Amino acid sequence: MPPDEIEVAYRLRTPPAQLAARIEALLLEQTVELPRSALKSAFVRERFVGRLIDTAPTGTDEFRVRLAQPADAVAGDPAQLINVLFGNCSLQADVELLDVTVPPPLARRLGGPRFGAEGWRRLTGVRGRPLAASALKPIGLSAAEAGELCRTLALAGMDVVKDDHGMADHAHLPFAERVRVCLAATAEAAQTTGRRTLYVPNLIGAPETVRRQARQARDLGAGAVMVSPMLVGLPFFNELVRDLGQPVLAHPAFGGAQRIDPVALLGKLFPLFGADAVIFPNSGGRFSYGPELCREIARVLRAPDHGAPSALPVPAGGMRVENAPAVLEAFGPETMLLVGGSLLDSPDLETLLARGRQFVAAVHAFGRTS
Amino acid sequence: MPPDEIEVAYRLRTPPAQLAARIEALLLEQTVELPRSALKSAFVRERFVGRLIDTAPTGTDEFRVRLAQPADAVAGDPAQLINVLFGNCSLQADVELLDVTVPPPLARRLGGPRFGAEGWRRLTGVRGRPLAASALKPIGLSAAEAGELCRTLALAGMDVVKDDHGMADHAHLPFAERVRVCLAATAEAAQTTGRRTLYVPNLIGAPETVRRQARQARDLGAGAVMVSPMLVGLPFFNELVRDLGQPVLAHPAFGGAQRIDPVALLGKLFPLFGADAVIFPNSGGRFSYGPELCREIARVLRAPDHGAPSALPVPAGGMRVENAPAVLEAFGPETMLLVGGSLLDSPDLETLLARGRQFVAAVHAFGRTS
Q: Are B190 and B155 in contact (CB under 8 A)?
């Protein structure tokens, strides 16, 4: 692609006879939003109107259509990039966003992963094997319960324990108290295990709230944070990561609602906007992604365009402790494996500890054999 | 509803035999994210688990399901509200968000429309008839072209001229210059018409960018602004409107991608988060909403829950000047009628002026006869 063009692929549902007209309408809708006849200015026609790259049939009355849109239209702005990719045409039911490749200057401007997969390795000290991760759930835990749970998961040997993404600044357990208690719990467990689990607090809210939480997390000593980019908004997510100084784990909440291919959204756009690791719902759990789709998300996260740092794939969502070896086999060592409900559904803390150790042992064993 | 519950309706596609289990899973997924057996704390079970209100079949293997979720789970946070409504379940293809009603304390916390339909009436001085509005397009206009276009639309008698929602801080025409030129154009036209057209600049970007644009717009004298809540993120939109001191026109870009009923998203959530007027793609244009859906969006905007100010419906999107009377008939006087491409596809400025006057005359005539 020329350095001044964004390549974007859509699935268009249209009869073949109307394909050319439909493509022309889509091409114009996403930048100038006017028919070509209404474009009086040569500057506009030359600089703000894209072009068709190619089309390929993908089914009956269904085509994959690749467009090149002028990077000038985006003005280097993260919100306007989303608008050019899928602003108005998101309102058109016959269009689905399949793929996007931005030119290197725009990718640099957005910044991509600041720390990438390597940032998680450095923070946890884990090399040559997957990372074992679990989650603090449910919302509603008291400070004592959250601390106890975090300590138990740390004692089980988890590399990472993250908050549930619904943990906000609740009256019964304010954000700063939660972070303080959980960091104390991982420190305490480290005196037994000899290795400190990385606790990853969830930031959620409008920008001023999230920025306050980020400052509190950093001041209290949290080494990384979690954010749901679609909940807080992709442009704010991108602005936030510039100032964080910590690796960011991205959660997909509110992200599946889009008519956007999950590989494009979670595999490409999340890291482009700054995610260092990306949670996605693994096949076989409570969500609807198939195994091939999940492997493709992981592949794209590990092999970004333009030599940007790779981001760490984090398959999650209804995985069972017993299935860990199969999941490890599917995703390989460059993975953070996240198990939540299946562990937390233990009848008591001793069982949780034992099952947590079983999960961690499976992850370590895979590292030795893979 | 009790004051501590959020009522939320989904469409669930599931065989009847699995409905009860599917509802239980959805109910838990959206707050505690754990099976009931894993909820050890009585506080969690009592305060963070919702309940089923009712279900009704809506088709073969398809049900409308109403849940009551505890407001405590939201912690008064706009991002966490979206998460509880449609965070994880957005990743489940069998779920669509149909409707939402928040309890009055949460509605007050979010704030709703600050100015509402009345704010637009006060700013424009228009009473007893619809407002006539048009758009500055395309992106790529020079300062001189933008000014000339704005002046012509103002001379035609438009009550409101808004930026295209893709107008960002472009190098060839920075935001502040665009606002300055357009405000000068409406002032100049007012010397001829005797009435000043309200120019509404588009704010777009990450939060720091948008806040800078908002300050510039206010300092330069813009009376209202436009924002696309789904592009900038609903939580930031909600935070922004608190500080604006100006009516906000909400644009639906990136909003159609959701598996959310447009009445719920554009008619309910946009004003709940602070929109004073809401653009939606009218039937018959380039978008896929039917006439009944559009009338229902307008009805809900005008009749919000809990006595909040009504927001002004703004049907738009591929409307033709010639169809204005029919559209006016469909929507009535409490409407801002927005015409863009059909006007701007005029061969020259004189024709644009004449067609603009024709549109404005139709709007005024409707006001006299309705």
A: no
- Quick check: A323 contacting B, CB < 8 Å? no
pLDDT in tens, A248-293: 888 888 877 566 777 877 888 778 877 888 888 888 777 778 889 8
**Residue in this structure with the two tokens 């309890």, named with its chain if needed:** B103
Task: With CB atoms and an 8 Å threshold, state whether A238 touches B206.
Answer: yes
Q: Which residues contact A26 (CB under 8 A, 6 or more apart)?
A: A10, A12, A65, A67, A89, A92, A95
Closest CA to A275 of A301, A305, A303, A294: A301
| Per-chain mean pLDDT for chain B | 89
Determine the Cα angle at A313 with ends B32 and A195, to 5°.
80
Element (H, E) at B114: none
3-state secondary structure of B169: coil
Whether omega for the bond prior to residue A262 falls within 30 degrees of 0, making it cis, is no
H-assigned helices in chain B: 19-29, 42-47, 78-86, 104-110, 116-124, 143-155, 175-193, 207-220, 229-232, 234-244, 262, 270-272, 291-302, 324-331, 341-344, 349-369
* Contact residues for A116 (Cβ-Cβ < 8 A; gap 6+): A247, A276, A308, A309, A310, A311, A312
Is A94:A14 a contact under the CB 8 Å cutoff?
A: yes
Q: What is the CA radius of gyration of chain B?
A: 22
- Interface contact flag, A33 B137, Cβ < 8 Å: yes
pLDDT of amino acid B257? 59
- For testing the chain B interface, which of A11, A254, A319 should be mutated: the one with the most B CBs within 10 Å? A254
Q: How far is CA A16 from the centre of its chain?
A: 36
Residue type, A4: D
Residue type, A316: A
Task: Report pLDDT for A283.
Answer: 81
Least confident of A283-292, A347-356, B312-321: A283-292
Strand partners of residue A101: A7
Whole-angstrom CA distances from B134 to A10, B26, B279 are 30, 43, 12
Tell if the CB–CB gap between B77 and A169 is shorter than 8 Å. yes
d(CA A205, CA A231): 8
Q: What is the pLDDT of residues A8-38, one digit of tens each?
A: 999 999 999 999 999 999 999 999 988 898 8
Q: What is the pTM of this model?
A: 0.90
Does the distance separating the beta carbons of B33 and A138 come in below 8 Å? yes
Residue A256 in contact with partner chain B when CB distance is under 8 A:
yes
Cα–Cα distances (Å) from B200 to A340, B110, B220, B225, in that order, read: 48, 24, 12, 5
